[in-house]
Specification:
- The longest helix has 13 residues.
- The protein has two domains: 115 residues, NAD(P)-binding Rossmann-like Domain (Rossmann fold), CATH 3.40.50; 95 residues, Alpha-Beta Plaits (2-Layer Sandwich).
- It is 36% helix and 26% strand.
- It has 218 residues and is an alpha/beta fold.
- β2, α2 and β3 form a beta-alpha-beta unit.
- The strands form two sheets. A six-stranded parallel beta sheet has the order 3-2-1-4-5-6, with helices on both faces.
- It starts with a strand and ends with a helix.
- It has nine helices and eleven strands.
- It is elongated.
């Protein structure tokens, strides 16, 4: 059975999320209070409705508590975002993810029980900053304030060495969890795997350890 997603608020972020989820084959309900905006997604999402998700009757009528994920994606309307999140959690929605526009907004969302708070602009800015300040880092995903996953291009320094030779975990405190080689991905590579130049190493760890590995180890 396909997972069911509801996206509330069809601005730039919410609208793009609806498109991406739909292209991945997910069952998506797109919701916005503006009929003109909703019309744009009738041929994109499985269902698109005009509704005010702050109204608890709407939440009941749409059966949102039965969805796997509900994403609240209002723009700068912090009050609407908070009230909608409260209503969704009060009605037993399993996973409520919310787009935040500020640190204050996030603090409130955390307090009222949002399962995940999303900062698309901040997170993208961090990924770009990591990418443009290093010739080796291709991508960067923040897992928490202290931990991340990075994609690092293997240089001549590590080419033709095995994971045993590098001993990344002992030396730097991080782990190579996968290697991308062309179109192939080696998940949980064996210790005897020989790294080739331009392999993409997918590494997880503490941010300080990752930074040290990128500067010294590769």
């Amino acid at each position: 059975m396909k997972k069911q997603f509801a996206v509330i608020g069809l601005g730039r972020f919410g609208g793009n999320l609806v498109r991406e989820l739909s292209e991945l084959g997910a069952d998506v309900l797109a919701i916005d209070i503006d009929e003109e905006v909703v019309e744009k997604y009738r041929d994109v999402a499985e269902h698109a409705v005009r509704a005010n998700a702050m109204d608890e009757n709407v939440i009941k009528e749409l059966g949102l508590r039965n969805f796997d994920h509900v994403i609240v994606s209002f723009g700068e309307n912090i009050e609407a975002s908070i009230l909608t999140t409260l209503q969704l959690k009060d009605h037993g929605v399993k996973e409520v993810w919310v787009k935040a526009s500020s640190t204050y907004h996030q603090k409130v969302l955390d307090k009222i029980g949002a399962d995940k708070v999303i900062h698309p602009e901040r997170d993208m800015a961090r990924r770009i900053a990591h990418h443009i300040t290093s010739e080796k880092v291709i991508d960067y995903i923040e897992l928490s304030k202290e931990h991340s996953i990075v994609e690092i291009v293997a240089s001549n320094k590590v080419a033709n060495k095995t994971l045993i030779d590098l001993d990344v975990r002992a030396r730097y405190g991080c782990n190579i969890i996968a290697i991308q080689r062309g179109d192939d991905i080696i998940v949980s590579p064996p210790a005897e795997e020989v790294i080739q130049k331009n392999d993409l190493l997918i590494v997880i760890g503490d941010n300080r350890d990752l930074n040290r590995f990128e500067k010294e180890g590769i």
